[in-house]
Amino acid sequence: MRNHRRPASATPPQALLERLKDYGQEDAFALWDELSPEERDLLIRDIQGLDLARIDRIIRCSFRSQGAPTPAIEPVPETSVSTVEERTMEERERWWKMGLRAISEGRLAVLLLSGGQGTRLGSSEPKGCFSIGLPSGKSLFQLQAERILCIQRLAAQSNDSTFVPIHWYIMTSPFTDDATRKFFESHGYFGLDADQVTFFQQGTIPCVSKDGRFIMETPNKLAKSPDGNGGVYSALKSSKLLEDMAKRGVRYVDCYGVDNALVRVADPTFVGYFIDKGVASAAKVVRKAYPQEQVGVFVRRGRGGPLSVLEYSEMDPSMTLEINQTTGRLRYCWSNVCLHMFTLDFLNQVAHGLEKDSIYHLAEKRIPSVNGYTAGLKLEQFIFDAFSYAPSTALFEVLREEEFAPVKNANGSNYDTPDTARLLVLRLHSRWVVSAGGFLTHSVPLYATGVEVSPLVSYTGENLEAICRGRTFHAPCEITF
Question: For residue 7, is pLDDT > 90?
């Protein structure tokens, strides 16, 4: 107990207290008498910054949705998936050209989900600042920025009449925003123009007890957490960035997570496929490596219902083993790897629909509170929540070893580490060099090293013959111009 107890007459602002009572949250002022004048001001500002009506609606709708009956789960129809083996070279070339034209005309924006810190990697910096140990030492942010620069060059070469730079929208969080902006500024935006990059923050939402009451982190501060990567939809809406995209002539949005070292940012083939299919949404998928792999998979909810993502924790163990007798594949095999494409019109529908429905996922967590860590709930939306609103979704299979190198856990873990991601990058780029007529020598075995091809040189292994043919490269090294 503090010794600066305030006089009983110093009461919380009556109007604010009444508003809290309307929503059953008046306990936020329970420790008012123990606070200094400065702490009281901080608490008042904290509560005044909340849209209490909206938060109350989210809590009620999210709690009410728990335990509600869900539609029967069905496998994704084979007709909804473009598999690697069924694509013809003609289709790929046509999609590539369609995508490059759309990009050159400014119809594509890139949306990066980058709200997370590298805590699990042993870093307090934004995850995009992390280097996975490539010969170049480049961060994830730099690799992605240089892929955008490469595509811009290819798009400009493909369409001499017009070229509009790709606009990059980067969602941060209150925990990463300042550090992310400074990192880009200190690195000269990695060669991009500063005005083609827009930063915006995802929202936060109070953590609540299992009876829906706010948890106090300190006597004068609510416990809050980011609203999940699906918070991107409400953040785009509240920041008026959907309107900004429309003014720029954007019609398609390529959306991905920051922690994929092999992500093909603004992939023209995927853009062209998306345009060709005429759907509202699309996702790149990889086949599950094995039945028990802990990944979310695309499913159909209800007969004729929309495609959506079923988390591995929601799957009955028997479901993971079911086989499609026609294809010989797992019935539920299409993994979600957070590589999505949306029309701008659809993003507007999603932002409105998610806000109207106000249903968030409830995650049981240990929440820091005035009473130490306590059991509570974080409320989150996920990026894949959008798919249940889509009138049409197409899935585009990609090869894991070419486009998916997640960086989620510290080295020493069993999977998805900087070491495993670096190995995937170096192996892929080494194959590019050999295919282009180059030779490799190694001071250590190939499984431990390889060559890195700068994204400024090649996007998918193209245009390497002039650099590589007949040359020998000593790994590890980076191949630049």
Answer: no
